[in-house]
Amino acid sequence: MAKFCENCGKELNENQDICLNCGKAVKKANNPVAGSKSKIAAGLLGIFLGAFGVHNFYLGYTGKATAQLLITVLSCFILSIVSEIWGLIEGIMILTGSINTDGKGNPLSD
Ligand SMILES: [Zn+2]
């Protein structure tokens, strides 16, 4: 499977860390395009369903997602405002590009 330098476009070996043509470090992410998550979807999930950590489940940040869900459920929704604000902020960060990778480090698609 061919891999190309994202800086100069030169073809690279599978296990090459630095482009020999331009010297730019090559990202290790396997196949970042396939299976990349939607930035818009993740952002909107955070804004509307952040109290349940849905956006973090979607992106694969399972730890954060579980924390948000548990805060909401274990408090019988009394503390859901905490998760909701947390999710809202993350949703906005996703939409503005402050959070731009999923839980595996793959870039989000527009
Ligand atoms: Zn290069």
Explain what the structure shows.
The protein is mainly α and 110 residues long. It has two domains: 1-30; 39-96. Helix content is 43%, strand content 4%. It is built from four helices and two strands; from the N terminus they run ββαααα. A two-stranded antiparallel sheet has the order 1-2. α3 (62-74) runs antiparallel to α4 (80-96). The longest helix has 17 residues, at 80-96. The protein is elongated, with a radius of gyration of 18 Å. 25% of the residues are buried. Bound molecules: zinc ion (ZN). Zinc ion binds next to loops.
* Helix proportion range: 40-55%
Structural class: mainly alpha
How many discrete structural domains? 2
Q: Which overall shape is indicated by the principal axes computed on the Cα atoms?
A: elongated
Compute the CA-based radius of gyration: 18 Å
Question: Terminal Cα separation, in Å?
Answer: 25 Å
The bound ligands are: zinc ion
Q: Give the uncertain stretches in residue-range form.
A: none
Adjacency order of strands in the biggest sheet:
1-2
Secondary-structure element string: EEHHHH
